[in-house]
Write a structure and sequence with these properties.
The chain is an alpha+beta fold. It folds into two domains: 89 residues; 231 residues, Bira Bifunctional Protein, Domain 2 (BirA Bifunctional Protein, domain 2), CATH 3.30.930. It has eleven helices and ten strands. The longest helix is centred in the first third of the chain and has 41 residues. The chain binds 3,4-dihydroxyphenylalanine (DAH).
Length: 340
């Protein structure tokens, strides 16, 4: 019996020394001191011993039990401390390390331009109307009084999704949507993305942006159109800017015009930016054709309106002196960051 006790003690010492985790130690505690543990078994067998044996085995077993218990506690404390130190090390923060720098982004020059134009019109009481980029053929052509043989309806000019849906070639479709849903007085602008089957070059892109405008009310005349767009031009390009309206044709306006602004680089004398003639073409406009107003069941005897549409890229290129439209879409930070 004495030998057995000694054996158990040796085994316990060896295994405790080898234990690597608190869980290992806990298992050893169960294995030696638990209900069915090896040392507990010794105590269970004591009943079968005679008096003399009990006298020696009892204290010996107790001593081993206490010793193993102490070793286990000691080992447990040591391993827990080790784990704690390891965690501290892992979770510690070096407050002297340099911080991570966050780069603040900048607005895209086209966004800046659209926001600037929008702000000018909002200050004149316009609200913003939006429409989808995938549009019905009715909203981009028929509703805008475009005849069935109009060249822009060609498959080579406009991207068709199905026979009667397209990627909108202009934002004028928002005019139709607005007229169908709102009653006069109407005063909206609509900035957005447009698409045309153009091969990209320095001045063309199959995807570009426009800002559309629409005003419908009683007594609206060409004078309102001219005053509004002249005021916009002065706010956008400088208070010395002059405007000029040239007759033009659009199916959805009658009469129609194109507006030029005096060159804001040379002031009208003629330079590289204005191609030498002192004027720069900025937008198309006109008095809304009665056929268009009728799409919205608007009484054309009572109401009249004007509309305009301008290319955002063109304005941004002129304002910022950008010579190639493709620069806007390349996402080169060195380009975009110049417009902060
Ligand atoms: N939709 C025309 C274009 O894409 C621009 C335009 C011209 C819009 C005259 C208008 C307008 O609203 O009245 O070239």
């Amino acid at each position: 019996m004495q030998e057995r006790i000694q054996e158990i003690l040796n085994e316990a010492k060896e295994k405790i020394a080898q234990a690597a985790t608190p869980e290992d130690v806990e298992q050893l505690r169960v294995g030696f001191l638990g209900k069915k543990g090896k040392i507990t078994d010794i105590f269970k067998m004591m009943g079968k011993l005679d008096k003399e044996e009990k006298k020696t085995i009892g204290p010996a077993a107790n001593k081993v039990k206490n010793e193993v218990d102490a070793l286990i506690n000691e080992k447990m404390a040591e391993l827990k401390e080790k784990a704690k130190q390891a965690r501290f090390k892992m979770e510690s923060i070096d407050v002297t390390e340099p911080g991570k720098g966050y780069k603040v982004g900048v607005k895209h020059p086209l966004t800046i331009t659209m926001e600037e134009v929008s702000r000018i019109f909002m200050s004149m009481g316009y609200s913003i109307a939006e429409g989808p980029q995938v549009e019905t053929v009715f909203n981009v052509f028929d509703g805008l009084n475009s005849p069935p043989n109009h060249p822009s309806r060609d498959l080579t000019d406009t991207f068709y999704i199905t026979e009667d849906t397209v990627l909108r070639p202009h934002t004028s479709s928002v005019q139709v949507r607005t007229l169908k849903t709102k009653k006069p007085p109407i005063k909206v602008i609509s900035p957005g993305r447009c698409f045309r089957c153009d091969t990209p070059d320095a001045t063309h892109s199959p995807m570009f942006h426009q800002i559309e405008g629409l005003v419908v009310d009683e007594g609206i005349t060409m004078a309102d159109l001219k005053g509004t767009l002249d005021s916009m031009a002065k706010q956008l390009f400088g208070s010395n800017t002059r405007t000029k309206f040239r007759p033009h044709h659009f199916p959805f306006t009658e009469p129609s015009a194109e507006m030029d602004v005096s060159c804001f680089v040379c002031g009208g004398k003629g330079c590289r930016v204005c191609g030498g003639n002192g004027w720069i073409e900025i937008l198309g406009c006109g008095m809304v054709h009665p056929n268009v107003l009728e799409v919205g069941d608007i009484d054309t005897e009572k109401y009249t309106g004007f509309a305009f549409g301008m290319g955002v890229e063109r304005i941004a290129m002129l304002k910022y002196g950008v010579s190639d439209i493709r620069l806007f879409y390349e996402n080169d930070k060195r380009f975009i960051e110049q417009f902060k």
